[in-house]
Task: inverse folding
C-alpha cells in the first residue's frame, strides 16, 4: 500500500512537460528489451511520458523511484530481437505506468511487472499488465531525424483486466 501511494505521488510530480504520447506512423518495432549494462534498476518505479525536457524534444518516459534514482527509460533499456510492425500493431502509448518486482527477484526486465490504465471511448477505465521485457521500441522511418527510437507498451486484449 505504501509503495502504491509513493508511486502515485511520483507519477503526479513528473518533471518538465508531459504530453499525450501519440501513435507512431510507419515504423520498425524492436522487442525484447534488456537493462543497459551498468544500470541497476530500483525495485519499484513509475514513469510518465515527457515530450520535452529543458527545451529539447525527448519523447521518452521520465521514471523515478521513491527516494531513489530518476532516469529516462530510453536511456536504460537496450533493444533485443527485431520484428517488423506498422502503426499501432499491438502497442499502446500510455501517459503513465508503474513497474515493480518482488524484493528477492533479480533485477532483470522479465521480473518487472508493469501496469497502466486507460479507456476506449465511453468504456470504463481498465488496466493492462505486462512485464517490462515486453516494451516495444519503435524506430521511425526517417520522418523525424532527431528521434531514433520511442518506447511503447504492449497492448493486447489478453492483458486487459479491471482496475482495482
Result:
Amino acid at each position: 500500500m505504501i509503495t502504491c501511494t509513493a508511486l502515485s505521488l511520483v507519477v503526479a510530480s513528473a518533471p518538465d512537460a508531459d504530453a499525450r504520447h501519440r501513435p507512431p506512423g510507419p515504423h520498425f518495432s524492436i522487442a525484447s528489451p534488456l537493462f543497459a549494462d551498468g544500470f541497476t534498476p530500483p525495485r519499484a518505479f513509475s514513469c510518465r511520458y515527457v515530450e520535452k525536457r529543458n527545451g529539447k524534444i525527448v519523447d521518452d518516459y521520465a521514471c523515478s523511484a521513491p527516494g531513489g534514482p530518476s532516469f529516462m527509460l530510453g536511456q536504460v533499456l537496450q533493444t533485443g530481437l527485431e520484428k517488423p510492425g506498422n502503426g499501432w500493431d499491438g502497442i499502446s502509448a500510455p501517459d503513465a505506468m508503474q513497474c515493480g518486482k518482488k524484493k528477492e527477484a533479480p533485477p532483470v526486465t522479465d521480473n518487472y511487472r508493469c501496469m497502466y490504465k486507460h479507456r476506449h471511448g465511453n468504456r470504463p477505465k481498465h488496466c493492462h499488465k505486462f512485464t517490462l521485457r515486453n516494451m516495444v521500441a519503435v524506430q521511425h522511418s526517417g520522418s523525424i531525424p532527431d528521434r531514433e527510437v520511442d518506447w511503447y507498451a504492449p497492448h493486447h486484449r489478453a492483458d486487459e483486466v479491471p482496475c482495482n
Summary: Residues 1-18, 143-147 have pLDDT under 50 and may be disordered. DSSP finds two helices and 14 strands in the chain. The radius of gyration is 15 Å.
